[in-house]
Structure formats: structure tokens, C-alpha cells
From TrEMBL, chain A:
Phylogenetic placement of the source organism: Eukaryota, Metazoa, Chordata, Craniata, Vertebrata
Reactions mediated catalytically: Cleavage of peptide bonds with very broad specificity
Name the UniProt record assigns to this protein: Proteasome subunit beta
Gene Ontology terms, MF aspect: threonine-type endopeptidase activity
Annotated function: The proteasome is a multicatalytic proteinase complex which is characterized by its ability to cleave peptides with Arg, Phe, Tyr, Leu, and Glu adjacent to the leaving group at neutral or slightly basic pH. The proteasome has an ATP-dependent proteolytic activity. This subunit is involved in antigen processing to generate class I binding peptides. Component of the proteasome, a multicatalytic proteinase complex which is characterized by its ability to cleave peptides with Arg, Phe, Tyr, Leu, and Glu adjacent to the leaving group at neutral or slightly basic pH. The proteasome has an ATP-dependent proteolytic activity.
Swiss-Prot/TrEMBL keywords: Cytoplasm, Hydrolase, Nucleus, Protease, Proteasome, Threonine protease
Xref: InterPro entries: Ntn_hydrolases_N (IPR029055), Pept_T1A_subB (IPR000243), Proteasome_bsu_C (IPR024689), Proteasome_bsu_CS (IPR016050), Proteasome_sua/b (IPR001353), Proteasome_suB-type (IPR023333)
Signal peptide positions (record): none
Pfam families: Pr_beta_C, Proteasome
Active site (catalytic residues): T44
The species this protein was found in: Oncorhynchus kisutch (Coho salmon)
GO aspect biological process, one term: proteolysis involved in protein catabolic process
TrEMBL record, chain B:
Superkingdom per UniProt: Eukaryota
GO cellular component terms given for this protein: cytoplasm; nucleus
Keywords for this protein: Chaperone
Family: Belongs to the POMP/UMP1 family.
Pfam families per UniProt: UMP1
Name the record gives this protein: Proteasome maturation protein
Coiled-coil segments on the chain, per record: none
Biological process annotations from GO: proteasome assembly
Amino acid sequence: MSLTPLVYSQWMGCSWDFGSINVALEGLLEGGQTKTPKPMKTGTTIAGLVCKEGVVLGADTRATSGEVVADKMCAKIHYISPNIYCCGAGTAADTEKTTDLLSSNLTIFSMNSGRNPRVVMAVNILQDMLFRYRGQIGASLILGGVDCSGNHLYTVGPYGSIDNVPYLAMGSGDLAALGILEDRFKPNMEMEEAKELVRDAIHSGIMSDLGSGNNIDICVITKQGVDYIRPYQESEYKDKRQKRYKYGPGTTSILTEKIVPLELEVVQETVQQMDTA
Amino acid sequence: MNTRGLRSQLKDSVPVTGMGQQVGAYGVQDTLRSGFSSVKNELLPSHALELSEKNFQLNQDKMNFSNLRNIQGLHAPLKLQMEYRAARQIQRLPFLQSSHLALDTLKGNDESISFEDILNDPSQSEMVGEPHVMMEYKLGLM
């Protein structure tokens, strides 16, 4: 009788069973013709600034996968809690999932304590998670929100670094956007002026960076509530369909037609009375 | 925060656990269950995060307990560990799903969601442990 110790400890979380297989496969594929598919990155311009009445966040809406535009109306401003929103740049799936997890954790906290979470809590949770995974989660995030201690704007890098500044830009178009922000930012701006400045910053990112484009989304967070304007400005370069591409009947000519009737015989018949009382 | 008191723990080495493969019949490697073997796979981790993730909970606990000991004295971690040990024993037979409710509440896992709650659900796993063998292992009859 052979010993088969299938004592198998079940634990949840990341599984490392396929680690060595993945490494071997990658080695095979690099030498061969095919390559592993690249994850969809957002190649973005995101920006945010703190104004007198709250926080204004802005983002473009293009998601690229290699050299192809994968999504023209991608939503990059994610909901975290009623008073905190987050723009995400980097790998699309990573930003999506990370912000979802953060939002779930903060919802549990709000239910436990009965109050809206603070922006610093969101930042700390994110920092812990991203540092734990040592940058393997490719998410650069801009968090903005209004809570009991004021208006805040933070950025969290993929390795867990944070920065607390009045105006920010991240993503592949960040240098272009930051130029506009540096030039025209003033502390305690009015709301309309702040929205225009963020729009201009994202616009310059769209114009100067290949990875950003299409429409501009703006999210305004104040003590009274949130105004998520999607899209704030549509791009002038929208495609217009030249004609209808539906094929009418008779487009393809029928060469032969053969009809085979299926012979079915009734084997059993049961009648069940329906109770229509 | 996860990085509190990290320096004091750097001296203790991270234990390398569970990298050996399954031994099948007659002490030979069980190819059907655990795939082909190679010495490199056993010695080196296949991913940068494998070691750090496998030992993450252990390291966190070690760090937190040592901090607690420094702040409040030896009784604090001892009491907590006693409670954890008691809560860990509240479970069903090894091959059944236990909820670990008391342990989760003590550790604070009931107030947070992370990848441990989403990925790799044991009820969906492809491998099933043999009940008799697992019971014998648990009772020490193996």
C-alpha cells in the first residue's frame, strides 16, 4: 500500500503554482514568433488641482493597447467614496481593480463608523497595498477629495510613494499638462477658472502626447457634493460614418438551396394542468 | 502601516517554507500531481514576490507582536497569541470548509477586503484532498 500524502493546505490569495511554467513559457515565446499579449495601458494625461471651494480632477479618455487605441471613451476617474474620487494612469486593469478594492474597504469603514472616510485613509491604504506588491501593480493614481479637514490632493506612485501638493499631473502626458499648470496656477482660485485651467492642462496633454486623446472628463468635488461631467469637452476629431454598413437581404447571391425535413415522432405526451386560480 | 518597525525585523531571516514538491508513492516524486521537477524550481522562487507574499502574514504578525511587546510589555503579545490559538481551534474537519469567523474577527480581517478574499477560493479549486488521509495526518496517525 503506497503512501499518498495528499495533505493539501488550502489558503487563499495569489497562487504560485504556475510561476515556473510562466517563466519557461516566456523564455520559449521570446525566441519564437509569438509574444505574450501586452496588458492594456491607459497612456494618459490626468491632472488635479485644489481650489477655494474644493478639488477639480481632469482626465482624457483614451486607452491604448500597444499602438492601437483600445477604448475611446475610457472612464479614468473612479469613484472611491461620496467625497473622494481618484484618477488612474498606468495599466488599466490594475487601476480599475485597485480603486475598486479601495472603495470597498472604505465603504466597510463608513458602515462601521458612520462617517465619510478621510483622504489620508485612502492614501494610506493604497500606499500599503502598492508597497506590498513592490510595483508589480502598475497604477499611478491621483486622489482628490473633500473631508472634515479640508480639500486634499494626493498622488500615489506604483511603488507606494506619495506626494501631497496643490496641483498635479500624472501619466504619459504629465509634462505637457504640468507646464500649463505651473504657468497659471494660483492658490485659492475660483471654481470656473479652476475648471478651465484643468481643461487646458488636459488639452495640452492630448495635443502633445500620443497616448492621450479623445474627450476630456472633469470631476468637481465640493463640500456640497460631486459634479462628474463626462464628457466636459468632446474632441473635434470624431469619426463620422460615411454610410450605413448594414447588408440588406440579397447582397450575397444564393447558388443552391437544399431543404431536409427533420422527421420527429411523438414518443410521449403529458398534460400538466396549470393552476390559474 | 505595513512598514512600521521594519528595521528591527531585518535581522531575523525570512523562513523559506513550502518550496519542496509532493512525494508520491515509494518516496519518488509524484509527477502526476505536481508536474515535472527540477532542482532550480525547488531552490529558487519563480517570481520576485513569491517569498515575500508567502510569508507576508507571518512577517506582519512578527512585526506587530514585537512592536506591541516593546510598547506594552510581554503580556500583550502573549495574551493575543493565546486568543489566536484558541480561535484557530474552532474549525471543522480538515477537508471541510471552515469559516474561521472568530479568528478573522480577532485579526481584523472582517473589516477589510484584499486579494486573499477574492482570488483562489478553495471551494473552486481543482485539487481535492483525500479526506481519510487528511484526517490521519491531523490526528498524527500518519
